[in-house]
Amino acid sequence: MGKFSIAIDGPAGAGKSTVARALAKRLGYIYVDTGAMYRAMALHFIRNGIAEDDFAAMETACDTAEVTIIHTDGEQAVLLNGENVNGFIRTEQVSHMTSVSSVNQKVRLKMVELQRGLAVKENVVMDGRDIGSYVLPDADRKIFLTASVEVRAKRRYDEQKAKGTECSLAEIEESIRERDYRDSHREFAPLVQAEDAVYVDTSGLTIEEVTEELYRLCRGGRG
User: Fold this and answer.
1) Is 124 helix (H, G, I), strand (E, B) or coil?
2) Beta 198-201 vs 67-72: how paired, if at all?
3) Please, what sign has the CA dihedral across residues 162, 165, 167, 173?
4) Would you say 101 and 35 are in contact if contact means Cβ atoms under 8 Å apart?
5) Is the distance from CB of 112 to CB of 38 less than 8 angstroms?
6) How far apart, in Å, do the first and last CA atoms of the chain sit?
7) By C-alpha distance, which of 114, 131, 110, 121 is closest to 183?
């Protein structure tokens, strides 16, 4: 019996990671946070002093970065050259570098290889920008998760404030608008709703309500 894969795509701040993690736990599947993998690579670029517009340097640096995912006691850890970087990849600086660097084809191809390998070996819930449209085009279930820019910005603002990080709601909203544009207009594997994906707007829903809706859509899966 083949493995069962669920692809969840959508723009920044739509709640993909939180919902995908909860759904995977409920189904007993492996959660693959592809965004965290790209963030780890972006962190690698930042640590090596690479400018956001220096794509040649990014492509060279790809060869010196090993990004992997491990699961221990049901929790995901993203490793960058053997170091658990979970605590370093959720800053606004890393978010910006992630959006800029992820349009680079070499960066994306390096990540895609690992992501597809995981889906071959495990029942997975995988979230990102291009999972259903490019990474796993034959996924058994495809979801496009979104919310208004204003709602997504407020969520990100609340997250940062809860961590004690000073931030501007207006700046976060502008950053999200810019990221939406970059993600949907990049030449290679842009953010797009796959033709066979179910559209889910989370603007007026709680995490629990969204998770329940996705579970209803996916519970016919195996595993």
Assistant:
1) strand
2) unpaired
3) negative
4) no
5) no
6) 9
7) 131
Tens digits of per-residue pLDDT, 45-87?
999 999 999 999 999 999 999 888 887 776 788 999 999 999 9
Instruction: Specify the 3-state DSSP secondary structure of 173.
Output: helix
Structure tokens at 151: 């709602």
Could you tell me the two tokens for 14?
């739509």
pLDDT digits (tens, 9 = 90+) for 112-132: 987 898 888 889 999 988 999
Q: In what order do the strands lie in the sheet with 67-72?
A: 67-72, 75-80, 83-84
d(CA 52, CA 202): 31
Question: Taking Cα atoms as reference points, which of 15, 32, 37 lies closest to residue 139?
Answer: 32
How big is the chain, counted in residues?
A: 223
The one-letter amino acid code at 144 reads F
